[in-house]
Amino acid sequence: MTVWTDTLKQRIEAARGKRPVDLLFKNCQIVDVFAGVLQETEVAVFDGQIVGFGERPAREEVDLAGAILCPGLIDGHLHLESSMLHPAEFARAVLPHGTTSVVADPHEIANVAGLPGVQFMLEATEDIGLDVFFMAPSCVPASHLESSGARLDGNDLQSLQQFSRIIGLGEVMNFPGVIEGDAEIMDKIQRFCGKVVDGHAPGLSGAGLDAYLSAGIGSDHECTRLAEAKEKLSKGMFIMIREGSQARDLENLAPLVTVRNERRCMLVSDDCHPEELATRGHMDSMVSRAMNLGIEPMMAIRMATRNPAEYFGLRRLGAIAPGCQADMLVLTTLQPFHIDRVYKAGKLVAAAGGCLLEMVVKTAGLPVTMKLSAVRLEDLRIECRGQWLRVIRLIPGSLITGEDIVRVVERNGEAVSDPQNDLLKVAVFERHHGSGRRGLGFVHGFGLRSGALASTVAHDSHNLVVVGADDADMVTAVNSLRELGGGLAVADRGKVIATLPLPLAGLMSTASLQEVVAGNSKVNEAAAALGATVEHPFMALSFLALPVIPRLKITDYGLVDGEQLAQVPLFVDDAPVRE
Amino acid sequence: MTVWTDTLKQRIEAARGKRPVDLLFKNCQIVDVFAGVLQETEVAVFDGQIVGFGERPAREEVDLAGAILCPGLIDGHLHLESSMLHPAEFARAVLPHGTTSVVADPHEIANVAGLPGVQFMLEATEDIGLDVFFMAPSCVPASHLESSGARLDGNDLQSLQQFSRIIGLGEVMNFPGVIEGDAEIMDKIQRFCGKVVDGHAPGLSGAGLDAYLSAGIGSDHECTRLAEAKEKLSKGMFIMIREGSQARDLENLAPLVTVRNERRCMLVSDDCHPEELATRGHMDSMVSRAMNLGIEPMMAIRMATRNPAEYFGLRRLGAIAPGCQADMLVLTTLQPFHIDRVYKAGKLVAAAGGCLLEMVVKTAGLPVTMKLSAVRLEDLRIECRGQWLRVIRLIPGSLITGEDIVRVVERNGEAVSDPQNDLLKVAVFERHHGSGRRGLGFVHGFGLRSGALASTVAHDSHNLVVVGADDADMVTAVNSLRELGGGLAVADRGKVIATLPLPLAGLMSTASLQEVVAGNSKVNEAAAALGATVEHPFMALSFLALPVIPRLKITDYGLVDGEQLAQVPLFVDDAPVRE
Question: Best label site of A9, A150, A170, B490, fewest CB within 10 Å?
C-alpha cells in the first residue's frame, strides 16, 4: 500500500516547472535565515508551500519592486487568554503584525475548564489563518492554596499528546517541586521525555538550577537580569527573551545576544493585552525593538523565526526555502522593520496593517464555566473576631504585595470597609464547582471611594475576585458577572455601570479587538471615576488572587502568605510592633 | 500511576549537592557550545549524566590541571560496514579519537541481509561504549540492475521505527526517483514525515534540487564544490561536510563556513576504511583539519558536537551542560586538537590514544549470507558470439569507468583473458539466494599477469566479484570466499595465497582493527605481486559492480551501461569507429 499523496506529487512537479506554480514573487530579496544574509531570488509557491527559487511558469506573478521577503514571525511562548480575545480574533489582530505562528500554553483556560478547555482551544484554533501549537499545561492547578476548575494529572497530559499540535510540556512553574523531587510534577515531565519541556524559573541559579535542568527542562522565559540569562544559556537553556504586556526584559537582555549564541535565543511575548495589540503590535514590534537595541537585523529576525522553529522542531516553519510553508512578510524596509503585506501558507492575509480575513468566532464545545450561586449580602459579612486586621497592601506596578496590620473598623459586630482610609473589602468566590466557598479580607491601595470592581480573570485559578467600598455594590458586581458568564464589571450605588463580558471561560470575549479595547477602557474609566488610584485596577485585581507571589494574597480559602505558601488568619491578636 | 524513576530523583539530589556526585572535574575550562566560548567551571557527573557546574560533594575528584573539557564528538553520517570491523571493534577504534556517538546508515548490510541485517546491527551496537543511532536505509535494493540480498519496502522501514535508535530515513540516493515522483521512494519518505530524512544528491541544483527538497529532504553530504554547498545551505539543507576515506571535501568546503551559517554545517566521514582509522583517526582528525583550514576552533568543534545533535534531535548529546550525557574529552590543547582522555557517560573509556574497553564481539543473530553453490570452471566459460568485445576500462582513482571495444581473443570457441594485453576476465556471482546467476565480462586496467582477486564487498548489493588472468584461479578464489563466508581473497597457480575473512555478511571481520589492517595489507601486497597496477585493487574491484555510476559496469545480470541504466551485451557486432 502506498501512502504518498497526489498533493506531494503535484508539488514536486511544480517545483520542477512541469506544472505552473500558484505564485511567483519577483524583484525581491529574501531573508536567508540559513546563510544569515539577504539574497536576491524569485520565490515560487505552490499549494501553500515554497517549492523553489528562480523563474518558472506561474499562474500569477507578484512583482515586489525591490522589497524584502521575510519568513513569518513565530511567538514561541504566550498565553492566548491574556489577549482576552477568541483565538480567531487574536489571529486577525496579530497577522498584520507579521506573526504567522505561535506556541501557546493554555494554562489559564485549563485551570478553569480542564481538558475540555484545552480541547476547545484546539478546535478554536483550526483554520484561523495562524498556526497555533500548544504546550500541555503542566501546572493545573497551579497551587494547593486555591480552588482551580480542574486538575490535569500525568495521564491527562499524556492523552493530549494524541493531538499533533500539542508539541511539548508547558512551562514547569513548579520549579521548587522539581528541585524537591515532587512525584506529581516529575511524573508529568517524564511523560514528555524526548519532547520539548519549557521552563519557568525566575531567579533560579547555581545548584538549584542544575537540579531543575537535570530533569530535562529546555527553556526559560523568566530571565530579567543579564547574568541570570548568561548562566541559563551556558547551562543549555534556550533563552526566551520576553517583551510582553506584563514584563519587558528585552532592554536588559539585549546585551546577552552575540553572533555566537544568537541561535539559543528567541523573542516571546508571554502575555499580550488587548491594548498592546491595538497600539504596539506584536512580534513586529519586538523585532524592531531588538534592532533598535543594537541586535543586528538578521539576528533579530532569526530570533523570531528560525530559532523558535528549531527549538520546537517545527522544521517547515521559520524560513523561506523549498519545502517550507509559504509564511512570508513583504517588508518595505528591513530596519525599520516595516511590514507591507503578509502571506500565510501562500495566501495574502494582511495588507497595509489590516487583516483580510473575516472574523469567524467558533464557541461550540466550550463547557459552562461559571458555576456560582447568586451571591447575597451576608456572604460578604465578616464577623469581628479581634482588634487587628491583616491587610493586603498593593505595591504599584508590582505583582508583589505587602502586608499591613491595622485596627478593625467595626460596625454591628462586623469588620467593615473604611473607604476614607482606603481600607476596602476584597473577596474571592470559588466559581468552578458551586461550592459556595469564599475568602474574605481587606486591601489597601485601590483608592475606591465608592462602588466595587469584580473580575473573573484572577490568576492562576480564575475564581471571581471583587473589591469594593460598599458590600451591596460588591454583590451587584459579582452577580452581574455571574449572569454574563464572566468578565470585568464595575458597580456603584446599586447599579452596574460598566462591564466587559468575557463569556469564554470567564477569560475571553467573543467580540472584536476594537470592542474589547473599548470595553476595557470603559471599565477602567469607570473604576477611575470611583476613585481608583492604581494605574491598572483590573490587572492589580487579577493578581491579588495569585497566592504563589509574596507577600499577602487572597484565594477562596482566605488570606495566604505567599512566602510561606500557607493560609494565615485575617485577625491578628496583637497590635503591630512599631519599628 | 507514577512513572518517574528513582534514578532521576537521585540525579536531582546529586545536582543539588544532597548526595555525592560520582565525579567532580576541577581546574578545567569547558567548551561551552551554547555561548560559543571557553568557560572556567567545575563539572559534576552522576550516573552517567552531567548534573551541574561548580563545587559539590563528590566520591571522586579529578584534577584536570588546566586542561579543557570538550563534548564528545558525533559523526552524523557513516556506514559502519566500510570499516570492515564489527561495530564493537569499531567503537574501540574510534573512542580514543574522541568519537562518542555516530549516526550510521546500515545500507550495506541491509542490501545483503535485509531487516535481520539491520537488527543484527542494532544488537551488535548495544553497550559497546559508543552511542550508535541508525537511519533506516532507504535504497534497498539500490537499483534494479543487480540482485540484492533483500528488499526493504515502506512497511519494512516503518517497522524499524519501533526501535528508539532508528531516528530517521537514511540518505535518499534515488534522487532521480524523487524528482520523477517514483511511488516507492515517495512512500518511504512520507512514512518518515516529521522525522529526519537524509539526502544524497551529488551535483543536484536548480529546479531539480527544489523538487527534491519539496519532498522534505533535510541534509546533503555529497557537496564537492563551494557553489553547490552554498545553494544547498541557502535552500535549507544541513550541509554534512564529508572528510572520509572515499571522499575528502573539507578543503573545498571550508570557505563555506561562516560565523552566521556554521550552525547549518557538520563534519561527517561517510566511509572510514580500517587503514584510515589506524593511521589518521576519526572525528578528531576532521576537527583538526577544519581548524587548520581556518575554521575557528569553537566552530569546528560545534560542527562535530552540537550541530549534529541539533539536526538529529539528540538533545542530551553534543554539549557539556546539566541534563546532558557525560560524554567528554579531556584536551591538553584546543588547537592542535589533542585528546588525552575520553569519558563516555561518565566512564573513562580511552586514555593516551588507547581504548580501555575489552573487545567483545557478538555475532549471534546474523543470518547466513553466503548462499553460493561451489563454482566450477565451466561457470566462467564465455562462448564466443562475435568478433568484438565491450570491455570495462578502469580509470585510476575514480568510481567512473570507461568502455573499450576490442577484438575477441578466442580459444576453442571461448572468449578468453589476455593478460599480456591487460585484458582480464571479470565475473559477478549472485551470492544471496543461490540462484547460480552470474554476469561475465572483461576489464582493462588491473594489470594482473597471473592469478585472481575476489571480493564479497561489492557495492551496492555486495555480490561476489572476481577478476583474474586465469579462470582456474578465479574459481579457486571464489570458492575460498564461499568457504570463509565472505571476504577478500587472492589465488594464484591453483592456490589461495592471501585472504581477509569477512564472515559478517561478507562485509565485516570479527578480528581486531590491527588484524584487519594486516589482512588488508596482505591481500593488497599479494595482488601487487601478481602484477596489479591499480593502487587499491580491491577497492576498484568493489566498485566494478556498482551499476549506477557511468560508464560500463558489471552485475550478476551482466554488463550494464551506467549512463543509460540498462543492460548491454558483451559482444558487439562492429569494430570500433576510429575517431
Answer: A9
- Percent of chain A topping pLDDT 90: 92
CB B443 within 8 A of CB B394: yes
- pTM > 0.90: yes
Contact A321 B236 (CB under 8 A): yes
Greatest alpha-carbon pair distance for chain B in Å reads 88
pLDDT-derived band at B579, boundaries 50, 70, 90:
very low
Bridge pairing between strands A338-344 and A328-333: antiparallel
Residues 527-556 of A with CB under 8 A from B: none
Contacts of B5 in chain A (CB under 8 A): 190
**Chain B partners within 8 Å of A179 (Cβ):** 12, 16
Q: Which of A171-180, B216-225, B253-262, B360-369 bottoms out in mean pLDDT, i.e. has the lowest?
A: B360-369
Residue B5 is predicted with a pLDDT of 63
Total residue count of chain B as it appears in this document: 579
Residues facing residue B104 across a β-bridge:
B78, B134
Best A260, A298, A299, A325 residue to mutate vs chain B (most B CBs within 10 Å): A260
Q: Integer distance in angstroms from the first to the last C-alpha of chain B?
A: 82
Q: How far apart are CA A287 and CA A117, in angstroms?
A: 32
What's the average model confidence in pLDDT over B349-378? Answer: 93
Q: Look over chain B and give the mean of its residue pLDDT values, rounded to a whole number.
A: 96
Do B189 and A4 lie within an 8 Å CB cutoff?
Answer: yes
Describe the strand order of the beta sheet including B73-78 as a list of residue ranges: B73-78, B99-104, B131-136, B166-172, B196-199, B219-220, B238-242, B265-268
Per-residue pLDDT at A246: 85
- In B, residues 36-55, which contact A (CB 8 Å cutoff)? 36-37, 39, 44, 49, 51-54
pLDDT of residue B573: 87
A2 pLDDT tier (thresholds 50, 70, 90): very low
Residues composing chain A:
579
| Residue A578 in this model has a pLDDT that exceeds 70 | no
d(CA A454, CA A457): 9
User: Residue A9: closest CA among chain B residues belongs to which residue?
Assistant: B181
The answer to whether A251 and A283 are in contact (CB under 8 A) is no
Question: CA-based angle B293:B298:B301, to the nearest 5?
Answer: 75
Segment B290-328, tens digit of pLDDT: 999 999 999 999 999 999 999 999 999 999 999 999 999
Q: Do B186 and A9 touch (CB under 8 A)?
A: yes
- ipTM score for this prediction: 0.94
Interface of B with A in 266-325 (CB under 8 A): 298, 310, 313, 315, 319, 321-324
CA proximity to A50, closest of A22, A27, A91, A9: A22
Rounded to 5°, the CA angle A78-A81-A82 comes to: 70
